[in-house]
Every structure is written in structure tokens, then in C-alpha cells.
Amino acid sequence: MELTEGMAAVVTGGASGLGKASAIALAQAGLKVAIFDLNREAGEAHAREIGGTFHHVDITDEDSVVAGFEAARAAHGQERVTVHCAMASRRGKTLGWDKASGGYKRLPTEDYAFGAEGILVSSYRIASLSALGMANAEPLNEDGERGCITLTASVAAQDGQIGQVIYGSCKAGVNGLVLPMARDLMDMGIRVNSVMPGIFATPLMLGMKDRNPQMWDQLNASVPFPKRLGHPEEFASLILEIARNSYLNAHQFRLDGAIRMPPR
């Protein structure tokens, strides 16, 4: 799919981290980018920098997402590239020792449901609502292509660690969406893929560099090659290639420097 000047894109979580890098790369390729995020201050500032628009969107709320797409399309037209990076989750072991009671405590079902909504259900919500708009747009090329949707999973989808029962299983669910959704949308010319990033130097991780430099060095050393955390720009580079290469469909890409996560 040729990324043309003025083509519309939507990036969730575009105010920081992997989403921000993706929004920058798409804007540099000439696209008009709509950022969906809860962080209004950072999102508006970033949108101004890249010549895009900011939309205050809660990915766990259907009405909020619908309104976000409506506003983005009013500003830029129908998006042809959608990149979903935003998420919400909690952490905890299935069973953990509770010192107060002197016994095991179960991770509440409500915590699991929160993560399922913030990772898996929100991925379906964003992808399906974007696809609905794309399906009614004119084809972009002789293949009949109408758009490309890229979801963000994680290496935890395959290498879930202790304490990641919510995150790992729900990110695996994101990967599980890809093939059946791509098949559902094949007659509309809409591609669906996912990326499984490893350990990336996002603002959250960069905070560790000052707080715990020893842990920071250990994380960098744990990556086989190159022996460092990933740069968000490297994630964004893959996002562009997935959008441009029309033969990439129904695939889950690991982007991780060959890391395989240990149990803890």
C-alpha cells in the first residue's frame, strides 16, 4: 500500500512511547495522524508537533472510541492506517502469599477482567471500528486494498513471566485475533497484523536508568543482539513496513533482539 501525502492514520497511545514514535514516522511519511490518548497535555503538544490532531479517547469505553473515530475522520478523512498501542492492565500472580492472613490469596477475577478489557477487548474494539470505516471507502490500488490495521501484542504473549498471567494471556489473545480477523476482512481488502515488542526504551523503562542503574544494565545485557533495549523508532520502522508491504497479512512479528524471557 503506497503511503501517500495526506492519507489519514490513527494511532492509539500516540502521546508517548511506541505510539508516539509510530505517529512521528507516519507523519514524516506524509500522513495526517490522529492521536487517541488519555494524556491530553502530552497528546495535544505532540499532535501540534507533527501536524496532526489529538482526540481524548478512552479505549475501554465504546462511546469514547466511536466519538474519537468520528472526530478524526471529520478532520482528516477515512483512516487507511490504524496502529493500536494503547492498553490498560494490572499485575499479579494467580496465587500469592498473603502475610496478613498467613495463606494464599487469589488474584481477583475483577483484576483479570480489567486487563482483558484494557488489552484484548480494546484491541477488538479499535480494530473492528476502524475496519468498519475502511470497508466503506474506495479501494486504494489494483489489489482492492482499503487499509491496514496493526495491533500491539508483546513477547509476553509467548514468554509470559511470573506475575504476568493477565498481561501474557491477554497479549496472546491479541495475537489470536489476527488470523481470524484478517480472514473476516479479506473480501474488504483490509489487512490485520500484530507486533510483539521485546524490551523497549520507552519513558517507563527509561525511568529505571536513574532509579536502578544496575537493573538497567542487566536488562540491556539480557538482549542477545544488539545488547540494548529497543529504540521506539525501530518499532515505528516496522509499523511503516507493515503498512507499505501489501503482502504482509495475518502475521505476528516478534521485534526483540532475539530475547526469550525467563520465568522471572
From TrEMBL:
KW Oxidoreductase (keyword) present: yes
Keyword annotations from UniProtKB, A to Z: Oxidoreductase
Superkingdom: Bacteria
Pfam families listed in its UniProt record: adh_short_C2
Gene3D superfamilies linked: NAD(P)-binding Rossmann-like Domain
Protein name, entry field: SDR family oxidoreductase
Organism per entry: Qipengyuania benthica
